[in-house]
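[Automated response] Your request has been received and processed.

Submitted sequence:
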Amino acid sequence: MTAVDPRQARSPGITYQELLDADTHPVPDVLRLEAPKYLGDEDISITRYITREWHELEKERLWSRVWQFACRTDHIPEPGDYIVYDITNQSYIVVRQPDGSIKAYPNACLHRGRKLKDYDGHCEEIRCPFHGFAWALEGELADVPAKWDFPHVEERQEQDFNLPECAVDTWAGFVFINPDKNCEPLSDFLGGIKEQFEIWNLEDRCVEAHVTKIIGANWKIAQEAFSEAYHVNATHPQILPYLADTNSQVDIWENYSRVITAGLSTSPLIWYEVSQDEMMRGMLDVRVDQDSPISIPEGASARAIASISARDRWRPMVGDRVDTMSDAEMMDSIDYTIFPNMHPWGAFNRIVYRFRPNGDDHRSSIMEVFFLSPYKGEKPKPVKRRDLTIDEPFTNATELGMLAKVFQQDVFNMARVQQGLETTRKPGITLANYQEAKVRWIHKKLGEYITSEVAPKSKGDQ
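Generated structure:
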């Protein structure tokens, strides 16, 4: 194994930090952080994607004992509001309590095991549809029909017949659960990402879009397509003139990481000079026979001009605060990942991804896209979720705008990666040392869970 310093193994052209030096506004400290990490260069075994045995280990040692994003607090605003959160073959009820707190329970009746809730909704009690056993929202057994026939239940109530609880906590308007009640606190698990997101205040956002899509590939294949920008040149060639793909900055901490890719900065893989006007036209998807709605004055930067337009767009929602924000916050893709499967984006990008196995099938997954938007006045209720089948394109979800086309290009590869890994005679995938370090970090963390008899504890940001 070669001890490569990833800061030297980088693409020719302007670095992200050098681009920030030319920003027209002060750049926040969070974007000046650099945390490159070399994690080795060994291949990653394909068994992690294609075998049932690895999937079973993930069920036992990952999903049953890791903090995971279940919903937004806005999805359960009132006492009795609940959502059903499913992960692999497990199901949980996340319910708002009378005192405003949130609890989560395994979604199973303690009488004969029937799922207690099939859909999201509202309830005054948690009653099983099969025989009618019921629990208070707080989890205490409240009603046993024909109670005279169950004296043994009353004797065992506190030990066996109050609903068992999962660990629950919130951050930035997200509700997290951990099926392991004895896990480390969420705050310790999240580490420094809490401070990094303080200036962007994701809690004060509304769910403007929520789209799910079934993907014909393992959840890690789907997630990894959104964990590096190296694929842009082949998968999204139309955005090369205005996205600095291979000049992305990759930062690795303990339980979170990020890739920052500059907008309106040309890819180093482009072999010809791209004008500022061409950059802008490409970003706006303007045809060659159309006039651009945003003109670039002589000597001006498309990045700076587009940032002005972006500030004008957000000003009605957030006021003059936009005047203190950098061009980078207006234009760049700031894609964080919280292990194992949540991707909140920084600044006003709005995007949050979540990737999960599709039920108990290790060869398919669920990709979710949330848009979290600033708002003015009374907070809008979360929009209704749109569910796309495996055969429906992302472009059916018009609420995603131009991004739907980009997502569809990503999906085009995923099932074919799964098929290729099922076919290949090469035992592992090979990753770049720097550009795909985030993918390797995901697998490093995953390995820590799978090989450990207990859930790993956070060691602090490193």
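Summary generated for your ticket: Residues 403-423 form the longest helix (21 residues). The chain is about 25% helix and 20% strand.
If you did not submit this request, please reply to this message.
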